[in-house]
Write a structure and sequence with these properties.
Length: 138
């Protein structure tokens, strides 16, 4: 990928972001109606931090990192706008989050993902496979 693909993208740890921006991006990424969630309250209360990606049109990427305030951090809600996909933005979001998560003293960064995202998380981002469990609650 040419470096120019990312030159116009501003990646920020704990970048300023509005609830509406995240709700719109999340709805697009996860194919659901636009909600009215209070992301800023959730981010302040639960997150170690988050990473935003912006281009000249606005928010194109976001990842939330929650944690146990000790050794474990978790990737939640990674999203890249369809107009900006396949440019390395998702990898940059994870790399940025990894650096700040390490700086915060965490030992492990966890992620759960669907099978079609295997190459992204394991090959592009550097996660390694583990055995995990999942319980469907509703």
């Amino acid at each position: 990928m040419p470096s120019s693909d990312l030159e116009s993208i501003l990646i920020e740890w704990r970048g300023s972001v509005s609830n509406h921006e995240i709700n719109v991006l999340h709805a697009e990424a996860f194919d659901h109606p636009i909600l009215d969630d209070d992301w800023n309250e959730q981010l302040q209360r639960l997150s170690l931090g988050w990473v935003t990606a912006r281009d000249d049109q606005g928010l194109v990427g976001f990842v939330n990192i929650v944690w146990d305030r000790r050794a474990h951090a978790f990737v939640v809600d990674i999203a890249v706008a369809s107009r900006a996909r396949h440019r390395g933005i998702g990898v940059q979001l994870i790399q940025t989050a990894r650096g700040y998560t390490t700086d915060a003293g965490c030992e492990w960064l966890h992620v759960d993902f669907e099978e079609h995202l295997h190459d992204f998380y394991l090959n592009a981002c550097g996660f390694f496979p583990t055995t995990a469990g999942l319980m469907h609650l509703r």
